[in-house]
Amino acid sequence: MTDTPGVASGPTTPAPAATTLGELRASGVVFQPVKSEIRTNLLARLGRGEPSLPGMVGFEETVLPEVERALIAGHDLVLLGERGQGKTRLIRTLVGLLDEWTPVLTGSELNEHPLAPISVWAHRRIAEHGDATPVSWLHRSERFGEKLATPDTSVGDLIGDVDPIKVAEGRTLGDPETVHYGLVPRTNRGIFSVNELPDLAERIQVALLNVLEERDIQIRGYRVRLPLDLLLVASANPEDYTNRGRIITPLKDRFGAEVRTHYPIELTDEIRLLHQEAHTIWHGQGQGLLGAPIVPEHLVEIIARFTRLVRESSHVDQRSGVSARFAIAGLETVAASAVRRAAIAGETRPVARVVDLPSVVPASRGKVEFADASSDNDDDRELEILDHLLRQATAQTFRARCAGLDLSGLQEHFTGGETVESGELVSAPALLGQLGTIPKLAELLGRLGVPEGEHTSEQAAAAVEFALEGLYLTRRLAKDTDGGRTVYGA
What we know:
There is one protein chain. With about 500 residues, the protein is an alpha/beta fold. The chain is built from 20 helices and twelve strands. The chain has helices at about 20-25, 35-50, 65-75, 85-95, 120-130, 155-160, 165-170, 185, 200-205, 210, 250-255, 265-275, 295-310, 325-345, 360-365, 380-400, 410, 430-435, 440-445, 455-475, and strands at about 75-80, 100-105, 135-140, 145-150, 160, 180, 190-195, 230-235, 255-260, 420-425, 480, 485-490. The strands form four sheets. It has a five-stranded parallel β-sheet. α2 (about 35-50) crosses α3 and α12 crosses α13 (about 295-310). It is elongated. The model has no long low-confidence stretch (mean pLDDT about 85).
């Protein structure tokens, strides 16, 4: 089984031994509704001092307490927030609060608990087999269902419809067993998520009213009474209330809690998120001549600051937001640029440098919606805005990390008219060879988090290039850029 990102991974303990209803009763298992199960496990985690929803960065003091209160209260909930704020990740992480294993009647389409059957089929099966009724065990990773709401989603997709094949087999139209159940009832005894709920047509949203309040379903006039046992969670962008669609008022009223998400508030959270989510080591990397790429901490900080500046920019459509994927993709692009240089220039260990940062701009432009973008002629202007914000982020990081550091020795190298050429394909030895002995290099490396005596020439080149760029941005050096070629001088 392939694990869904954010959903609890596969089994860590073997399933219990009971395989029949009689053995299940003898083992002492009792039926517990899903919301009660989640509440019990959540309170146990909180009591042990463990994170309630591991991996949710920056929500510890804001979003998570609201979610925890909603789950303890047994409420279905809707998460509101701009794109890329981790709503889907949060929803999928809820699966970890389910018991690792739960018993189900073998063959049940509705994952029915053997001690609390809800369908005609289940009651008949137990009546026929008694304590010998077969029982299976369902792992929590299989107790999650989700649907991305689209305008073409039907009631049949979510709730169910008449199955013509079952009718053709001889059953009458009034027989509940002629129903083909949709995604919601098939997630009974679990968690069901509707992503981008406002995109669901209003007449389809009506079909969820009974699920949320009466906990049953209605299919084409059938009198189907199914007391579904599930937690329903939805996500939406606040702008969707007025743009693409809206959540109908009766449905909003039936959600027990509405929780607003947000982008990371603190820079440290933005950096933590990048470290957690960015994939900078790829399958097969390190199996050849190149080792895994290193992205120095000062470059991670630049990407984080750049993302925050783009979010705050008056040129960017604030209603759309700037997804966390903007920063993640940017960091991955920087790492890829370093690997490309190492492969071409013959470096043994790829280390990202300042010269790799410009590659982020064209790669990430499609992730930003600019305000007042009216024509294709605005493309150059958008690139200029992103370039400016990237330089600003670099300058902020330089001031934060190198404040008070004496770089006059490095600056003096240029007093006689010398220049230093760098570029996306200039190797670390080639860059350092132009400078000779670099005064206070160890102190510079220490400021950038490289342990003394453990640095490589590639890490030294990354530190020196950052210092050169910082001197340029603070107007102590000049810089000339032509394509992929960069020349620093007095």
